[in-house]
């Protein structure tokens, strides 16, 4: 990690920061034209505030929903304003007790090179030997907490369960499978969109089986890898994956409904599962959740997953893209499944 806290200086030493703004709301798949790269001058930090130089930022599927207008669980991004999201940065200037220049922090003002924020919006973090700082945006951050809470709390995982994970090679899914394995699942299966990702799941991550959803019907392939049925489905995809899981569930099966990436970019309404009636006879639980409601579980997650990381019992991958100007492409590529593990944008070398 570099200790360089120098500013990008403009006239009279003022800090110049680039940021990515939402230029227009996408219709269907986002394109480069929906984003705008702009320069701005962050204000000097006021009392209780800090100026942070971002080192890494995150692009995540949920951001696609915030690009749409309309009511949701979180306000939409504003047109002409910078986007936001998880970032790891270094304090450049502080007017807040408890935070000093050089401190490393995790915060929600990504998509820009510099950000001014209240001290309460920044969580001080420490470097872990052998673990990149960007891990705080993935395995030790929001995706890690999503996987941990979704599997253990929302889906009420029990030792001996058969677990199916869709989007299994992504930042969240790859952790769900590993946590299930470490917690005593009898079988862990997943889906992904390439043969390389299937090899990654069944090799490095220790999944018992996995299939490429692009090569055949999901229902048939899930039945092949989980012939005795499933107890838990961690849903990152929705659509045909949810339909397949409903067919495959044993009685009293549980779904953690985390995301539905298959419909995020649909320009028209998408029909729901045609077999939802199975939830009645099988006495299924389908429970949606938002990870922000479960921040109280972060210390437990960091403690347990951090120990697994140090012991080498859990692993993670990152797809790293360099440069703020390439953040929109990284975001679009992530939605299309081009990443293995967490998609990260590195802002400072």
Key attributes of the depicted protein:
disordered N terminus, 349 residues, 15 strands, Rossmann fold, Quinone Oxidoreductase, Chain A, domain 1, alpha/beta, 7-stranded mixed β-sheet
Structure description:
By secondary structure, this protein is of the alpha/beta class. It folds into two domains: 11-137 and 317-346, Medium-chain alcohol dehydrogenases, catalytic domain (Quinone Oxidoreductase, Chain A, domain 1), CATH 3.90.180; 142-292, NAD(P)-binding Rossmann-like Domain (Rossmann fold, 3-Layer(aba) Sandwich). It has nine helices and 15 strands. The chain has helices spanning 62-66, 142-154, 173-182, 195-202, 218-225, 239-248, 278-281, 298-311, 327-335; strands at 17-22, 35-40, 49-58, 87-94, 104-107, 114-118, 123-125, 162-165, 187-192, 209-212, 230-235, 249-257, 285-288, 318-322, 342-346. Helix 2 packs across helix 3 (173-182), helix 2 packs across helix 8 and helix 5 packs across helix 6.
Give the ordered list of helices and strands.
Answer: EEEHEEEEHEHEHEHEHEHEHEHE
CATH superfamily of the largest domain: Medium-chain alcohol dehydrogenases, catalytic domain
Global geometry: globular
For the secondary structure, the number of strands is: 15
State the low-pLDDT regions, or none.
1-7
Q: What is the top-level CATH class of the largest domain?
A: Alpha Beta
Whole-number total of structural domains = 2
Beta percentage is 15-25%
> Quick one: biggest sheet?
7 strands, mixed
Structural class: alpha/beta
Distance between termini?
A: 9 Å
